[in-house]
Amino acid sequence: MAIDLPLLESLLLLFVSMNAVVALAQDNGSFVCNGFQRANLRLGGTAVIHPTGLLQLTNTSKQIIGRAFYPIPLEFNKSSSAEYSRSLSFSTTFVFAMVRGATNVSGHGIAFAFSPSLEFSGAVASQYLGLFNLPTNNGNSSNNQVFAIELDTILSPEFSDIDDNHVGIDVNSPRSIKAAPAAYYWSEEGKNKSLVLVSGDPIQVWIEYDGVKQQLNVTLAPLANPKPDLPLLSTSIDLSSVFVDSMYVGFSSSTGAVASSHYILGWSFSRNGQAQRLELSRLPSLPILRESKAKQRLLKIGLPLMTVAALLIATMGGIYIIRRKKYAEVREDWEQEYGPHRFSYKDLYRATKGFRDKELLGVGGSGRVYRGVLPAASNTQIAVKRITHDSKQGMKGFVAEIASMGRLRHRNLVQLLGYCRRKGELILVYDYMSNGSLDKFLFTNERPNLSWFQRYKIIRDVASGLLYLHEEWEQVVLHRDVKAGNVLLDEDMNGRLGDFGLARLYDHGANPQTTHVVGTLGYLAPELTRTGKATTITDVFAFGALMLEVACGRRPVEMRALPEEMILVDWVTESWKKGAILETRDPRLGDDYVVEEMELVLKLGLLCSHPLPTCRPTMRQILQYLDGVATLPNVSPFDVCSTAVVASASEQRFGHYVVSYPTILIGKTPVQTLSRIDSILIDGR
């Protein structure tokens, strides 16, 4: 049968123009996708294409990865150096949007990436963006050959991130070789204007690389704006050392302890000159935008019914007032500036099922902690701590500090999500840590035994979190209650320092004004009993006690132990003098540990516990020792115990508890015994 070819071609062209949302010109790896309805993409992880053509990489789940790559690799001509350099050139533009989940913080970001393979073996989520892992291929050019432009919304100090809202150029590692805060050039004012990557609004990105000139430009702008005259990032880079014979191109995205939805609305790519412009009118809408419009239509339809609704509310006013008393809160005008951090008592009451005992996670000296599920936050799990505020510090100042701590962002800190006040009671809301507190693993049979690898990593995690608090945030944060009970473990057994109920803030270079001795017995630095002044070095002392209890599986003070083993730091010191320091390790470890690491932790723990503050290392030095970047000074057990703690003790009374606290000696001269301190937390014992 004869076929009229011109007629057939016309029909096919008409079909594509009427029905295809995606136009793919696959010649030489050039294509344009105004939406992804019929796109030929290789999807991985949680990535899905909605019926509208919207590409969604991640959803509101935590610790997930979503990828979408062009399935045909780009081939590079290495027959001649000039031809090869030209073949490396590319131009691309795409539109993305990041939408926060239930909280004011976001998941991690999106990376536009080139990779020699679509099998990302061992790649993890969180700050590695689904492209890398530690230590298999992070920074390893022989295992990687990955080039990426990251749109990062989390500050990761371990990668020297500049802030929590930046664009970076990555080569074989999430540690960017060049980065800049997200912004776009506004020609009318002749300066850059800031962009919030996780605003939920669509943002367009242009990435252009000239292989001959070895010049890379990255440009951003809001969707409604034309391409700016000046790029955000412009740098000279030779991609011939990164690209192999064939490379795949696409997107990878991830979430961490907090989730957010990441979308790609359209994508154009070309290896032959400028990438084709996206048709913005044909791009799919975001679900949140459609929902907002639907609500507006519903409100318009419902306006005629508002009068009837008002009458109904009036008749139920009495019932409402009675029920309102049940959830009554304390609110003052000055709290409006901290509004985003405030939860309603009603929501927290429902989240914890009325603070039922079945939801109780633990009881400490400062309050009770409950598990909760926010009803309007996609079943987000939270930990809710109820404490009674002593009112010695003004409530306004206390809430100001709570609001400031809510801005702390670090992978080894439990995220403080907000607070609530009610009838003299302060309620703090944290991220929920599924594996509970470290002390449950060390001192009870409720949890399985921790391996040495897990213990060492947890110690390192807490050290990283404390370094961020002491030196890397905009203010100095004194935790003042570092202990195993305040180290929480997430679902991946990462250590996170939590419970900032006693924390205090002050400016870098200022003198801390804390004068009340607070903390937990066994973790208090001796100078606290004399001056009452907490510093970063008193946090170091408590961290030293934590290191010893993690390695030895024992609390700093064990009243039921033999007299010579009652004070953990003394027992480890004496064992070191006898050349048997490794015998103090937790017997549950057996021989399954690294000798060098165990000795380092024990000796470093003693050095942090030095009675003279000037002899203790800083958290930055501690982290360098743990990472092997610096070598622990050659100290002896006599160096770390120039001040002895002897068995003779003075009886002191703490609230309803009577405890014995040792006299401090320098040489043979007693300095001072601990005076009455009502605010010390005995942690329920």
From TrEMBL:
Q: Which residues form the Protein kinase domain?
A: 355-632
Q: Which residues form the signal peptide?
A: 1-25
Membrane topology, record value: Single-pass type I membrane protein
User: What organism does the UniProt record list as the source?
Assistant: Nelumbo nucifera (Sacred lotus)
What is catalyzed by this enzyme? Answer: L-threonyl-[protein] + ATP = O-phospho-L-threonyl-[protein] + ADP + H(+); L-seryl-[protein] + ATP = O-phospho-L-seryl-[protein] + ADP + H(+)
Q: Which UniProt keywords apply?
A: ATP-binding, Cell membrane, Glycoprotein, Kinase, Lectin, Membrane, Nucleotide-binding, Receptor, Serine/threonine-protein kinase, Signal, Transferase, Transmembrane, Transmembrane helix
The UniProt similarity line reads:
In the N-terminal section; belongs to the leguminous lectin family. In the C-terminal section; belongs to the protein kinase superfamily. Ser/Thr protein kinase family.
Q: What is this protein called?
A: non-specific serine/threonine protein kinase
Molecular-function annotations in GO: ATP binding; carbohydrate binding; protein serine/threonine kinase activity
